[in-house]
Design goal:
By secondary structure, this protein is mainly α. About 65% of the residues lie in helices and about 10% in strands. Strands 1-2 form a two-stranded antiparallel sheet. Strand 1 and strand 2 form a beta hairpin. Helix 3 packs across helix 4.
């Protein structure tokens, strides 16, 4: 690669990390062009899927504010409709199970 600045020509060298990263991406069978920063997003989405508290996720990612976390990853959190559906389903399932246990006594 060559970088041309006013009055000078410099050869830009790839970093040793970049070389190692590209090799790791290839060996892992990931898409060419997968960036190291993509691992951060993968990690964040895994924390969200595991239903961690958003404040815990904020801390783990080193975000200064919860707003930064929610602006970046808010679309990955379940919405109120999803949470509501699961809560009612658990309530009904739990009540039905209690009834079966009472009848079995």
């Amino acid at each position: 690669m060559v970088s041309i600045e006013p009055g000078a020509v410099q050869v830009v060298q790839r970093s040793p990390f970049g070389t190692c990263w590209r090799l790791a991406v290839e060996r892992a069978g990931l898409e060419t062009g997968t960036r190291f920063h993509d691992l951060r997003h993968f990690y964040a989405s895994g924390l969200i899927k595991a239903n961690l508290n958003p404040k815990v996720i904020q801390t783990r990612l080193g975000h200064a504010t919860i707003v930064e976390t929610m602006d970046t990853y808010g679309h990955l959190f379940p919405d109120d409709e999803d949470l509501g559906r699961g809560a009612i389903e658990s309530l009904i399932t739990g009540a039905a199970e209690q009834d079966r246990n009472r009848e079995a006594r």
